[in-house]
């Protein structure tokens, strides 16, 4: 960094890969603006991160990691969504964060926290001069949908929803909890809680970029000072590498880096379908078998990241059967895979990070949404941004192998009208993404403004 730090910030993420990644990238951006950052993880994930960070050469990371006691042992499942877990988590993390801030002198200028932990605002308010910045890991469109829902403008399970600044939405385009909230009530309530105190927060930060959601952003900005700071991906995947920045690849999983890159190197340009459903999605057994058959039937090469806990669902002898045409790994270095010239498209569950990463690198998409905000992201991928297709599922949510073959055919064919349009749009959005984060771009300006404000903050 060289120069004296102008502000000191604590950044807190819930222990989920899809939240840690963007918050870590944001931390690096803050550091590049001369801010000292301490990255707070829960004690149950802290050791995991540090172990892999060290193994991955990230010892030189220009920020420190401090564990907050969440009351759980290392290895506690990160997908625990019981009310008891959330209550204990809130109580312990609040206490532990308060103790940390009390012990700091001078106090931090701000706490940047995951929007899923809105109660951190109450901790900040105990310390005059500590600003509260809520960081939303989903897009503004999804945020706006929840806000309309919480205002009673439409009901759970409603089909055909008309909302300002959006195309007409079917029930199946809404975040899953609003259409099928029997799935997990505590998670639904947690998701809604992100918006309970948005009138009181000091900063409303969103991992998105302005050109992506122009109308919705306008609608949001009429009510809150929403600032896009994304896309939060390491600078080397955009045009300008930040001095000293690296993709530290900090992960809760072991990425099979060389295996993926060597295999991709052996394939022709644009010939590979990369398949991944993120860090949490769980496919039903029969869906996994059908997907495996569908991928095989596409005739294309494919690289499929199947988390260790999901591998038992693969058909017997599948790896032998697909031979050189397919590579199955438990965890990929996703950004490097997306940026590889052999990758022709990305079949994704449409998690917001995966979506944004593909958009920023200019990769066309096949959306197969599973949970949470993913159906809405898939709707926008197909009908608004027009950067891919969304698989059509039957009424029980099942996607056939024929449908997988159809979607792969549409997106992988670079010569068809659809294939050409999809690629053109993907490259156009990639340019916007790069501009947003380049020096003087919209997101960069928002980060600079955030830093300037917290440096002289006193509410
Ligand atoms: C979740 C939600 O799905 C998402 O919609 C929400 O907004 C954030 O949290 P997750 O389901 O894990 O996250 O998906 P995603 O948002 O796509 O995040 C996964 C991250 O893991 C991405 O940054 C991706 O690059 C990384 N990843 C995934 C790998 O590095 N390797 C893999 O093999 C798979």
TrEMBL record:
<dbReference type="GO" id="GO:0080044">
    <property type="term" value="F:quercetin 7-O-glucosyltransferase activity"/>
</dbReference>
<protein>
    <submittedName>
        <fullName>BnaCnng43810D protein</fullName>
    </submittedName>
</protein>
<dbReference type="Pfam" id="PF00201">
    <property type="entry name" value="UDPGT"/>
</dbReference>
<dbReference type="GO" id="GO:0080043">
    <property type="term" value="F:quercetin 3-O-glucosyltransferase activity"/>
</dbReference>
<dbReference type="InterPro" id="IPR002213">
    <property type="entry name" value="UDP_glucos_trans"/>
</dbReference>
<comment type="similarity">
    <text>Belongs to the UDP-glycosyltransferase family.</text>
</comment>
<keyword id="KW-0328">Glycosyltransferase</keyword>
<keyword id="KW-0808">Transferase</keyword>
<dbReference type="GO" id="GO:0005737">
    <property type="term" value="C:cytoplasm"/>
</dbReference>
């Amino acid at each position: 960094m060289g120069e004296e730090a102008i502000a000191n910030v604590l950044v807190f993420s819930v222990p989920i890969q899809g939240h840690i990644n963007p918050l870590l990238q944001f931390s690096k951006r803050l550091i590049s603006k001369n801010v000292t950052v301490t990255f707070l993880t829960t004690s149950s994930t802290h050791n995991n991160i540090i172990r892999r960070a060290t193994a991955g050469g990230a010892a030189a990371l220009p920020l420190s990691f401090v564990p907050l006691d969440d009351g759980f042992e290392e290895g506690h499942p990160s997908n625990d969504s019981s009310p008891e877990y959330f209550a204990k988590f809130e109580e312990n993390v609040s206490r532990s964060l308060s103790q940390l801030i009390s012990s700091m002198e001078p106090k931090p200028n701000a706490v940047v926290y995951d929007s899923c932990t809105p109660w951190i605002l109450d901790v900040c308010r105990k310390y005059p001069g500590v600003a509260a910045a809520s960081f939303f890991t989903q897009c503004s469109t999804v945020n706006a949908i929840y806000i309309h829902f919480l205002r009673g403008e439409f009901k759970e399970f409603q089909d055909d929803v008309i909302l300002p600044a959006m195309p007409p939405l079917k029930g199946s385009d809404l975040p899953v909890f609003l259409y099928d909230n029997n799935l997990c009530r505590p998670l639904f309530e947690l998701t809604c809680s992100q918006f309970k105190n948005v009138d009181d927060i000091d900063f409303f930060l969103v991992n998105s970029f302005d050109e992506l959601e122009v109308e919705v952003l306008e609608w949001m900005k009429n009510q809150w000072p929403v600032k896009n700071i994304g896309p939060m991906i390491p600078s080397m995947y955009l045009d300008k590498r930040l001095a000293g920045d690296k993709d530290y690849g900090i992960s809760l999983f072991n990425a099979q880096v060389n295996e993926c890159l060597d295999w991709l190197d052996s394939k022709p340009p644009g010939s590979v379908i990369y398949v991944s459903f993120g860090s949490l999605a769980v496919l039903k057994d029969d869906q996994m078998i059908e997907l495996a058959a569908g991928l095989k039937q596409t005739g294309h090469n494919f690289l499929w990241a199947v988390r260790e806990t999901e591998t038992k669902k693969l058909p017997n002898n599948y790896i032998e059967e697909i031979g050189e045409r397919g590579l199955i790994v438990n965890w990929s270095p996703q950004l490097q895979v997306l940026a590889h010239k052999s990758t022709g498209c990305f079949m994704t569950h449409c998690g917001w990070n995966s979506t944004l990463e593909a958009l920023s690198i200019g990769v066309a998409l096949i959306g197969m949404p599973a949970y949470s905000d993913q159906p809405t992201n898939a709707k926008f991928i197909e009908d608004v941004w027009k950067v891919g297709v969304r698989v059509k599922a039957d009424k029980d949510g099942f996607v056939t192998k024929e449908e997988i073959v159809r979607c792969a055919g549409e997106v992988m064919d670079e010569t068809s009208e659809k294939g050409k349009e999809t690629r053109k749009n993907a490259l156009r959005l990639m340019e916007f993404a790069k501009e947003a984060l380049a020096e003087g771009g919209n997101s960069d300006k928002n980060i600079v403004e955030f830093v300037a404000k917290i440096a002289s903050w006193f509410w």
